[in-house]
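Long-time lurker. I teach an intro course on protein structure, and each term I like to show students one example going from raw sequence to a predicted 3D structure in token notation. This year I'd like something fresh instead of my usual example. Would anyone be willing to generate the tokens for the chain below so I can use it in lecture? Attribution to the forum is fine with me.
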Amino acid sequence: MDHIFEQKLVRENQQLQLELVKMNKQIKQLQEKVFAYETVIAEELKGKQHKIDANKNNKIDAEDFKLLRKKKINESHTLEQLKKLDKIKLRGLKVKYENKIKNATTFKEKKHHNDEIKNINRLLNK
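-- Reply from a regular --
Happy to contribute to a lecture. Here you go:
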């Protein structure tokens, strides 16, 4: 009886060792995949992606898009850019800025949009 019990234990031990070897292989494969993924992430930005990388951390992430949206709000049209537009586009741009004033949350934003509207009005009245 002890002999049968020992044989069972030996078989179970061998099965566990085989499972352990398989699991180690799977772990190694997963580690290789993670390493490959990290390598891909660590690559440099391609083409004009550096223009999107607003926080200059060599990654394009949500923070970059947040900064770009903020920059777009603060970006103003120069008089030279406005002069190139025809009157219909200028009126459309004026309406756009009037709507932005309604949705503006800070005084700085409202002032900025008001200045844009003044520039557009100057060109429309010429």
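Some talking points for your students: The chain has a mean pLDDT of 81. The chain has three domains: 1-43, 46-75, 76-126.
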